[in-house]
Amino acid sequence: MGGGWNYRIVHRLYRPGTPQEENSYSIHEVYYNEQGDINLWSKDSISAIGGTVDELLADLGRMAAAHKKPTLEWEQMPGGDSRPMPPPKDRVYCADLPLAPEFFIK
């Protein structure tokens, strides 16, 4: 691949081996180094965005194309772990939060 980024589907399993086991699939931005290895990815799932409706639809198209690539496993991603899913009241769904360095996992 040689650098760059794309959208990828990431699978995460919460509370494995328990009656409360839960699967989650989400879209993340994934960045690659020059060797094509993942070196940075968005900690939270990504929402589509655009300055116009056409740009928004183009972004949604790039997200939809992520299904053509292998699904990534959260626990195998750099910095991934099996942290429990936060309770619904603590989850963040807003796409327009400022991008701070802690937004990305290295």
Number of strands: 5
Helix content: 10-25%
Largest sheet: 5 strands, mixed
Average of the residue pLDDT scores: 78
Could you tell me how far the N terminus lies from the C terminus, measured between alpha carbons in angstroms? 19 Å
> H/E element string?
EEEHEE
Beta-strand content bin: 25-35%
Poorly predicted sequence stretches spanning 5 or more consecutive residues: 82-106
Looking at how many chains there are and whether they match, the oligomeric state comes to single chain
Q: What general outline do the C-alpha atoms trace?
A: globular
Question: What spatial order of strands do you see in the largest sheet?
Answer: 4-1-2-3-5
Number of domains: 1
Count of helices? 1
Q: Structural class, from secondary structure content?
A: alpha+beta
Rg for CA atoms:
15 Å
Describe the structure in brief.
By secondary structure, the protein is α+β, with helices and mostly antiparallel strands. The chain is built from 1 helix and 5 strands, in the order βββαββ.
